[in-house]
Amino acid sequence: MDKWATPRKVENAYHYINDKKPIYDYDNSLIGKWNGYKARPTSNFRGSIQISLEDGSGDVWYSGEVMKWGDGYKLLRDG
Known about the structure:
By secondary structure, the protein is mainly beta. It is built from 1 helix and 7 strands, in the order E-H-E-E-E-E-E-E. It has a 7-stranded mixed sheet with strand order 1-6-7-2-3-4-5.
């Protein structure tokens, strides 16, 4: 019998990220950590999180899907 890998669970970043673990981009490069700020979802917006960049150059907002990745999370799209 063939063994198949368990598919990774894909979640919305707003609902899934609730701790300050490392966040990786879709190319598996470390970009930073969640800084604690979120924008609530509305009827036509999925909500977003703010990520403090690892290089100290500022913060970025991200709205989209993520999945658990090693010791942190992986963003599944750019921006």
